[in-house]
């Protein structure tokens, strides 16, 4: 099987079980390898038959920076399900067959050691509960606990969604109308009542407090 990889890209985020780790951001190093056939992309010279590694890096950054995860394991599961999920209509990427993710915290035990985890999953493993949250709006749960979560949100064309203020969004596919560009919306408690309208079938990455608990 062919693969695409990103090695040692770094984000700075809230992560960990210690009180100071939930107060002070720390560096996180991420390695990811995506297994899929690259033959069609190579023959056609077409990125949509492959996977845009820059888009993967941005999505993983949103999951890491906005999730405030306690465990590396939880974060890695969210990342794995995101890339293994079937491409949404208009997402413009190929289906990933398997993923390998490594997460490392270079500072927490420095200089004695660098702790981390590794996770390998195949496409058949990726099962996500689907929850309707509004007419024409369905949420897929990538990973969730009582404190936070990561989701794919699907909106039918013309659907409207009152976006919980505790969620950060990243557009994955489709077009929407909102009061800011959709490619990245930071969490902001002052922005309650955001109404998003899908101009076309829309898929979003949403990270933060569980959407239907608000």
Write the layout of secondary structure elements.
Blueprint: E1 3-13, E2 26-35, H1 39-44, H2 53-67, H3 72-84, E3 98-104, E4 116-122, E5 130-134, E6 137-144, E7 149-155, E8 160-163, E9 167-173, E10 176-177, E11 194-198, E12 202-208
Antiparallel strand pairs: 1-2, 2-3, 3-4, 5-6, 6-7, 7-12, 8-11, 9-12, 10-11
Describe, in plain words, how this protein is organized in 3D.
Helix content is 16%, strand content 37%. It is of the alpha+beta class and 214 residues long. The chain has a 5-stranded antiparallel β-sheet. The chain has a 4-stranded antiparallel β-sheet with strand order 1-2-3-4, with helices on one face. It has a 3-stranded antiparallel β-sheet with strand order 8-11-10, with no helix packed on it. A hairpin with a 2-residue loop joins strand 5 and strand 6. It starts with a strand and ends in a 6-residue tail after the last strand. The chain has helices at residues 39-44, 53-67, 72-84, and strands at residues 3-13, 26-35, 98-104, 116-122, 130-134, 137-144, 149-155, 160-163, 167-173, 176-177, 194-198, 202-208. The protein contains 3 helices and 12 strands; from the N terminus they run E-E-H-H-H-E-E-E-E-E-E-E-E-E-E. The protein has 2 domains: 3-125, GTP cyclohydrolase I, C-terminal domain/NADPH-dependent 7-cyano-7-deazaguanine reductase, N-terminal domain (GTP Cyclohydrolase I, domain 2, 2-Layer Sandwich); 130-213, Jelly Rolls.
